Structures are given as structure tokens and as C-alpha cells.
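sorry for the late reply, my laptop died twice this morning and i had to redo everyting from scratch. anyway the thing you sent over, i finally got around to it. pasting the sequence first so we're on the same page, its 400 residues, then the predicted structure underneath. double check i copied it right bc i was rushing
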Amino acid sequence: MLEEDRLAPVPAADEFLRHVRFGRDQAESTTRTYAGAVALYLTWCGCTGRDWTAAAGRLGSFMFWLRHSPGDGTPVVAGPGSEPVRGPRRINTVLAGVREFLAHATTLGAVPTFVLSQLYEVADDRDLPMQARGEGSGLRYYAKARHRAAEPHEPVGRASDEEVLALLRACRSARGRFIVLLLARAGLRRGEAVGTRREDIHFLLDASVLGCRIPGSHLHVVRRDNDNGARAKSKRSRAVPVDFLLVQAYDQYVVERDACREARNSDFVLVNLFRPPLGAPHATRSPERPLRPALPPGGPDRRRSSPRSATRIRQQRGRRRRRPGRDRRPARTRQRVQLAGLPASRSTAAAVRRRTGRRSRSQEARMTPALQLVPAPASDLLPARAKRLRALIRQRRWTF
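ok and here's the structure:
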């Protein structure tokens, strides 16, 4: 981080960002978010003539400055009817980065220790939900942030099934359709999708021949340092199950990918096929490029509200998992009931019949266009697998 006057690095901020990136092993995007928060805080201190080591007690004025100042050093002029520059959620994100920055400077001795009392206050767990209190009966105390903007409760904007189908129709290549289904069906983040390697794809009913003990078709999300800067945010590797729609989309994409000679030697799944450099892995922000034909009218200002946003497409998987009428019992309980052959009660069976009857018709209406958009490959090795997966769909074990 550089000072604007002398273009010299700020030692405290540079040390903090190095600690976040290399000491905590955080993702590059997380480090970039912290850097933006610290830059805004130092800019505010420079505009108001305050020392950044002793300005923690004036974070209320800093919140007002964040709400109405663009952050370029111009004076704040807020009047009736003025539009806020940043919302409450963005302000809380900046405040979280500033608190981490000052707390780290406290451990290094660059900031007095009383600054922590200006950042946090002691609170008990009586206002926390029951799930967060623990099993103990006594009160527990924790450090609570003193400055926080009130965030309105808004539902998460998820892409609907109709929007996902519209994106599939707008895609002009098999790679674009695979990206849409990879985000919507598997729920991968943008960096996870771009950083996926070919060795992470296990689209087989039995992957034991590959040394993997996880049954069924799935893909692995592994955190590693990639040449394109993509990196999974989760430190733990995980396996994500996939359905036959994603498997068929991948088979169709592989045929299109093999037609490019430069892409055959790349270990990355998503590579450039239609523009130079051919065969190079996608950049972190490039998965949305094949979805540009689906951009609604209004220009780039509607990027976050657009159904083509990678975040909204990824969150569509969570929407499908929370639909009413689904058996919400644990997986072990469902397996034990099925193995034991225990009959359900009349009221429960009737409710399940009513719900599944309504849902099966809507599933068929949504699934038919998707199956037509992603045709089965011309291989003779896949009909048995596709037939079995279609049978599972009919049994409502997988939903769309």
C-alpha cells in the first residue's frame, strides 16, 4: 500500500497485509478486501488530520464519511435527499478490516493497548441464539464490536430455475453451458470453478480405479496455488456430488475442448477456446464472459442484480435444497427407515403424497427444456449410466 503524496509504502499497512496473505494463508481476494478497507481508513485520517494510531475512538465519524464520501479525498456534503455512496453491509465490511488492522498493530506495539477498548466492548451471550450459547448453563462473555451499521434483513438474491434456463439458451458454446451448470448445480464459487483441474473431475459411478473412495459422480475442490490466480477460499478440500445434467454438459464441453490443439496439454478444465491465448486457463473474473449475451438491458450497473451474476447462479443451488416438501431428516435416519421398511404414519404419508404430487409436475416442466439443451454424447459407454441416473430422477432422489 502506497502513500499518495510520496508514493511510498505504508509500513504498518504493508506488514498487516503480508500477515493476512502469508501468515494466515488467506485468499488473495480476502487480502484485497482488507487492503481496500485500510486504504479508506488511512484516507479518512489524512483528510481529517487525525493520527491513525489514535483515531479508533472516532469511528462513528468514519462511518458517516464512508456513507457519503467516495473516498477520493473530496469534502463530504450530505444533505436531505442525498444518495449514500456505500450501504450498511459494505460499511461493516470496511469496519471489520479496520479493526483487524488496528488489532494487529496493537500486537506489534505500534498502537497503544487502550485502542482495543475503543474497538470492542465486553458483552454476554444472552442476546445470542440458543445454538451459539453452548452447553454450559452459565453466562459467557465475549468481545463485541462497538461500531456497527444496522443491516436491513433482505432475502438473498438467488437465480430462479427460469433464469438459469434462460442463461442456458443464451450460451453460444458448450463451455458456457458447462459454466452455468457448474455454478448452479454444483454451487462452486468463481475461483473454485476457474481453479478446477482435470484430475479433480471424477464423473464415474465408481472412481476406485482413480484411487478415490467416494462413490458416485463427483468433483473435488482442492485449495492450491494456480497460475491464473484462482484459489479456493476454504482451507479444507471437499467433494461435491453432481447429477447427470452436469455430467452430460461436461462430456459435450470435452468434445468442444479437444477440437482446440492448444487446450489439449492444459491441466485446467476451463481454458480459452475462442480467443488468444488459446489453451490458457481462465482468469478469476472471466467465468462470466461467456454469459455476456444474457446481460439484461441497463448496462454494467445491473451486474449484481442480473441473473447472470456468478454469485446468484451459485446460490441457486441453496435455493433448490431448501424447497418445501423435501424430507429434512438426517441422511442416516432416512437410510435406517428405508432399510427397516418402517411404514410412515397416515398423516405424514398423505402430506408427502400431496407435496410430491405437486412438485413432480413442476420438476418435469423445468427439467424437459434442460435435457433438450444438453444432449447426450455419442459415446457407447454412457447409456447405462444415463439410464440409471434418469431412474433416480424419477424416484425424486435428485431434484432440479
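The CA atoms of residues 126 and 139 lie 7 Å apart.
thats about all i looked at so far, will dig more tmrw
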